[in-house]
Amino acid sequence: MTQLYAQPYNIDAIGFYFTSEEEFQERSNANRDRFGQIVEEYEIQFIDGETIDAELARAFELSQCNFGEFLESSENWNDDQKIRFVIAVAECGYDASIDPDEVEIDIYELDSLTELAEQFIEEGLFGDIPDRLRFYLDLEAIARDLSMDYTAATIAGRRIIYRCG
């Protein structure tokens, strides 16, 4: 379960923890500063949850305006959708209103661009290369060429190679 914290911008008020939009509404409606005034503005902070959800919160640029959408996404999306969203928004510059299933990004869970080069050769991306010639291929050079289009990132402990569409 993802736990967030509402830190008031008002220095005379005390914040609170919450795990749902409803809980936030209840607590914020009852929250008063030391002068009895209603507290209206909060900084929303990610406190506890899965590592991938912390990455998702960063990509969302978590705020009082979007924490409900974030909570819904963290609960309903699988890890692959979350990774797609994080890459699309945080790395490729997409707007946070995107649907991660409709973003055109090539994603490979590999440790290096050299592994990606090997995979592309195996898949025949460079055409049919006879086995006797594969030993002469410079995988490091292919990996350097791939680095013009592909980037490596670590998201929630997973090594990801991606290309923005």
Poorly predicted spans: none
Largest sheet strand order = 2-1-3
- Which outline best applies? rod-shaped
The separation of the N and C termini measures 33 Å
Oligomer: single chain
- Report the order of strands and helices: EEHEHHHEHHHEE
What is the number of beta strands? 6
For the biggest sheet, the summary is: 3 strands, antiparallel
What percentage of amino acids are in beta strands?
Answer: 15-25%
- The pLDDT mean sits at 95
Tell me the radius of gyration: 22 Å
Work out the helix count. Answer: 7
Helical residue percent band: 25-40%
**Which structural class matches the secondary elements?**
alpha+beta
Task: Please characterize this protein's 3D structure.
This protein is of the alpha+beta class and 165 residues long. It contains 7 helices and 6 strands, in the order ββαβαααβαααββ. It has helices at 21-30, 51-60, 67-76, 79-91, 113-122, 131-134, 139-146, and strands spanning 3-8, 16-18, 42-48, 105-108, 151-155, 158-164. A hairpin with a 2-residue loop joins β5 and β6 (158-164). α2 (51-60) packs parallel to α4 (79-91) and α5 packs across α7 (139-146). The radius of gyration is 22 Å and the shape is rod-shaped.
For the structure shown, list the relevant keywords.
165 residues; 3-stranded antiparallel sheet; 7 helices
